[in-house]
Amino acid sequence: MLQAKRILLIIGGGIAAYKSLDLIRRLQDEGAQVRCILTKAGAQFVTPLAVSSLSQDKCYTDLFSLTDEAEMGHIRLSREADLVLVAPATADLMAKMAHGLANDLATTALLATDKPVMVVPAMNVEMWAHRATQRNMALLQADGIAVVGPESGVMACGEVGAGRMSDVADIIAAVKTHFSGPLGRPLSGLHAVVTAGPTHEPIDPVRYIANRSSGKQGYAIAGALAALGARVTLVSGPTHLPTPKDVDRVDVEQAVDMLSAVEKALPADIAVCVAAVADWHVAGENGQKIKKEASGAPPSIRFAENPDILATLSQHPTRRPALVVGFAAETEHVLDHATRKRQRKGCDWIIANDVSHQTGIMGGDENLVTLISADGAEQWAKADKHAVARQLATRIADWFDHRRKDS
Ligand code: CTP
């Protein structure tokens, strides 16, 4: 399965590094060629000699080695691979990757590579749970880096919880999935349109009506769908977010523009409407800035209804995407409102979430959602928005898989 695949294995400094020795062997058993970089901290746990004996190659450790640079510079090292695998990925290594630091051979190769990167985190429970690590994880995932694990269990330090490096068999499975074409990229050949962010509805040339949507959940979904191989068009209202890897982004301001951009992107197999589209825009043109009245009377603003993008797509007479997914941001009676919203708009699934102020979901990093389909409601565990996105993308892939098998 991994015949002739070139894997650059970066071994970080953690007790789990001993498993990486076995990992080298198992990757070779599958036919892969493994070349290794051992960090300084990694060398505290396994020796360069063991690594080079097993990989049957030089063990690369030094950024400023004259002999290494003459034979195989760090740039070539990072490019002559089909996959860069970081196992164990320590909190420190992940933090450096997330922020683009490059002060040793491993981090320099990671910054210089143009190849897919997969990390296998391994660290203490609290270090893994720390907000800084979770923030770094989110950044890495937004950059399109694949993550394997970590697992929960008893750690070398005696604590119990999430942080243990995945078993070698699971790492091998993830690497195989990565290389297995359609299986690893189950949405390849499908086009997904995702709406995200708020819309800005102008009052006059300097003022507008907006909402608190950050766009984080929609961007994460666009990235997760692309990671599974879909061609993704992200139609985005104004946000401060970077475009996820391999995603085509179209920027819009108002709801009407968002609808035009979505219709222009059709045909699509999948539509996921995550945008917090304003329900109304200001009626009539205010070509000039509205001035205060001498009388002190406030201006009266008239609203007109915006088009409903989700309903338009769901009820499209000729180009309805095969699977249309909407979000229902509610502040009370969440399931009730969301269930009715699914029927009213005519979409296949609704992802319901409680955005009342105390949940901190609007603009925050975590989400607690319930998937509502014709089969009923299913609550998902509270997770960060990237994890929710991955779960949704996987569910979408399963849906298409069943559909293919049924037809
Ligand atoms: N939506 C849309 N176009 C609109 C309004 C909403 O595409 N003009 C989509 C959102 O992207 C989301 C879903 O519809 O997927 C539900 O959005 P929400 O704001 O919760 O619902 P509304 O239709 O605005 O209903 P209400 O404000 O009455 O709760």
Could you explain the architecture of this structure?
With 407 residues, this protein is of the alpha/beta class. It is built from 14 helices and 22 strands. The protein has helices spanning 17-29, 48-55, 66-71, 74-79, 91-99, 105-112, 125-129, 131-142, 168-179, 216-227, 255-265, 309-314, 334-345, 385-406; strands spanning 6-11, 33-38, 59-60, 83-89, 117-121, 146-147, 151-154, 160-164, 191-196, 201-204, 207-209, 231-236, 247-251, 270-273, 280-282, 303-305, 323-330, 349-354, 366-367, 369-373, 376-379, 383-384. It has an 8-stranded mixed sheet, with helices on both faces. It has a 6-stranded parallel sheet with strand order 3-2-1-4-5-6, with helices on both faces. Helix 1 (17-29) links the parallel strand 1 (6-11) and strand 2 (33-38). The longest helix is centred in the C-terminal third of the chain and has 22 residues, at 385-406. The chain is elongated, with a radius of gyration of 24 Å. The mean pLDDT is 90. The structure holds cytidine-5'-triphosphate. The site of cytidine-5'-triphosphate has 16 residues, from helix 12 and strand 17. Residues 5-176 form the Flavoprotein domain.
